[in-house]
Amino acid sequence: MILVGNPNVGKSVLFRNLTSRYVTVSNYPGTTVEVVRARATYGGRTAEVIDTPGINDLTPRADDARVTLGLLDAHEDATIVQVADAKNLRRALLLTLQLAELRRPMVLVLNMLDELQEQGGHVDTERLSGILGVPVVTTIAPRNHGTDDLIGALARARVPRTPEQIGQQVPPPEAGVGRILPVARDATAQETPYDLNLARLELVKRIVGDTYTISPPPNPPARVRLGFWAMHPVKGLGFLAAVLLAVFWFVGLFGAGTLVDLLEIGGFEQRVSPAAIRAADAVFRFPHAHDSELISHTVGFPLSPAHELPVVNLDKVATRPAYVVPGDTRLNAWQETLRFLHDAFVGRYGMITMALSYALAIVLPIVTTFFFVFSILEDSGYFPRLAIMVNRGFRLMGLNGKAVLPMLLGLGCATMATMTTRILETRKERIVTTMLLALAVPCSAQLGVLLAMMAALSPAGALVWLGLVLGVLLLVGWLTARLFGGETSEFILEIPPMRRPQLSNVLVKTASRLDWYLREVIPIFVFGTGVLFLLDKLSLLSVIGRALQPLVTGWLGLPAEVSNAFLVGFLRRDFGAVYILDAVSGPAPLLTPHQILVAMVTITLFIPCFANFLMIGKEHGKKVAFTMAAFIFPFAFAVGGIVNLLGRMLGG
Amino acid sequence: MATFVACPMCGFDFDRDDTLCSHGCPLGPVCRLIRCPSCDYEFSEIPRRYSWLSRLLGKKPEESSRLPPDVRPVTTLDPGTRAEVLCIGGQQGSRPNTLAVFGLVPETEITVVQLRPACVIRVGQTELALDREIAEEILVRETE
């Protein structure tokens, strides 16, 4: 069974209903970029279900149709299940007629029946089924309505009538209407896909006229009006500002502030670390004494970067990882070994005190809040409207508004987003977008950390950072577009209706992304911490620090401790960012606001993480990947240094 | 958009793109003459403005003057207007088909949703955002 249909009609939701395997579902065309397969059991039979990327046109020459046509060829005995948006019968039937030419058994599913009814529409499914000669079922996929009907209809799948036969089923075209093209013509004739589709649409018009009525209510619901505002030239900007502010509050202040404090200070520093230290002391015995100090912690409701409404005070005396060995004792070899193991778990670069505390107490809350708010925006249908707003600006970079979708996904994770650049039409657009993703689009954990660091800066400093990153984005985009040359495709984008995000889908999507993220992050954090720990034990850390000193201290004007951040930044940019956040938070911050700005800019532009590098290589070839890395690394330090110099000159 | 030329000899009005000059002629862009398909008289196109000053100060040629009064580009309509599509432009390339698969073909009724920052039109239940340059080539006739 192969699910085929126009983009954004709910194929993936239906797929999930049929197979109970999770696939990402969003409210914009092009979410599914890869073919997804799963096995499903229904009626005592097991069958393979295949979900395909959405297509508008099945003409073999159309790029997006190749994947689908290839799949249909590879599975000759599969039933075609065409999923359609019931509201938009016209476009669905164009595809139906194209599928009918394949002469294979199929079922037509009219999904989104609820939206059709809301719009005052009606489809005569029995008549439609009679005309096409295939079973027609209606579903409301998000509520899992009609899935059983679909399973029942699969057994009745039929080869549809040919276009000529269909033509005989419907009333003849009205007299005097335009030019009527003959419906089926010899495929070898000099017919462009356009001519053929024109002829099909002529027939579709007659079918639709016979089976479909719609009378939209006079007063559009509030969310439709919200959709208009979101792409209005003036209100749209206000809308964008409101969205950004909301994201900043939720991710930057609540997620990266309150929640991180709660988990890091309240969780790790006050409870988990002391417990782990006691446990480690009990197992690895050697003479030493840990410091204890009062760790103050206030949980509050964040109002602005500098103010919060205190709710509850949770001060607690806790054991710190730092310890002293009594001066007159010399440790023997056995005790040294125990000390090594002790430090590996709860030392300065310990697995529990650093790797897990970074991954679970800092990255986890940030990523959770980010993915949550991102999923809501995704499902609401706001992103394509944003594409309209930025289309002009993106033109400067040789892109069109469509590129905003991969870029926004890049705020989640650049690696995933690099794969999504496939929805862009020309190679130039794909390369430019990949470059910008690798260079200047911070991924979620990094973004959250940056937002939290912004809280330590003045609003002016935060604006400077934002302006710099956007400026770099435009400049590098423009340069890359110049270097690569080639065409920018025309901006033709379907705008999905605004929908109320479903909490269950938002939660499931957040959870699945989190699961994937943590699986990737925790091993890397553990590995990176392990590397730092070994370098520290071998006294190599200070050697590297000294080697990097001209660059970090001289050129960027940052304290030598920060070189560790860049070292781990090679593994993941967000690891480096978390390290810097660790250095700026707390009562005695290591960095001045000027230094924070320099560090923020440098780590934002810092080289793409290893996973992204591999993905770039996979999508565009190794040469492109190496060229990008070779450009980005010096470029990040160059920009950071310039910010440092300018800041000094201006007396920052 | 089709550029209409009037033959100075016989007065025949024809589309520049429909002549042999733009299809089969081996001289291609080297030749600056146009041959009238009716009387075969060869003549040069309207001379190009030779200085940037005259381009700057001179009046812009009225492009759409050749269109019948009720046929106009979609970009000249007010948001909320309903209109019937007559021609979708982009004669070369894949654009006509790209628009057709969204249901945007001649004889369809559309509603203009907005014109800026990008043109958005509604075709049936599909809202489609288009570059202004594309929208300018879509010719429509206002309905109702």
List keywords for this structure.
heterodimer, A: 652 residues, alpha/beta, 6-stranded mixed beta sheet, elongated, B: alpha+beta, 6-stranded antiparallel beta sheet, two-stranded antiparallel sheet, 4 helices
What does the radius of gyration of chain A come to?
29 Å
Mean pLDDT of chain A: 81
Classification by helices and strands of chain A: alpha/beta
What does the largest sheet of chain B look like? 6 strands, antiparallel
Which stretches of chain A are poorly predicted, pLDDT < 50 over at least 5 residues? 176-187
Order of strands across the main sheet of chain B: 5-10-6-7-8-9
Give unreliable regions of chain B as ranges.
none
Question: What's the number of helices of chain A?
Answer: 25
Percentage beta strand of chain B: 25-35%
Number of strand segments of chain A: 13
**Which percent bin holds the helix content of chain A?**
55-70%
Q: Give the largest interface.
A: A-B, 40 and 28 residues
| Oligomeric state, counting identical vs distinct chains | heterodimer
Helix content of chain B: 10-25%
Strand content of chain A: 5-15%
Give the overall silhouette of chain A.
elongated
Mean pLDDT of chain B: 76
Give a brief rundown of this model.
The complex is a heterodimer of chains A (652) and B (144). With 652 residues, chain A is α/β, with parallel strands linked by helices.
Walk me through the structure.
The complex is a heterodimer of chains A (652) and B (144). Chain A is of the alpha/beta class and 652 residues long. Helices cover 60% and strands 11% of the residues of chain A. In chain A, the strands form four sheets. A six-stranded mixed sheet of chain A has the order 2-3-1-4-5-7, with helices on both faces. In chain A, strands 6-8 form a two-stranded antiparallel sheet. A two-stranded antiparallel sheet of chain A has the order 9-12. In chain A, strand 2 (36-42) and strand 3 form a beta hairpin. In chain A, helix 16 packs antiparallel against helix 18, helix 18 runs parallel beside helix 23 (593-605) and helix 21 (563-569) packs antiparallel against helix 22. Chain B has a six-stranded antiparallel sheet. Chain B has a two-stranded antiparallel ribbon with strand order 1-2. Chain B is of the alpha+beta class. In chain B, 15% of the residues lie in helices and 28% in strands. The chains are: A alpha/beta (652), B alpha+beta (144).
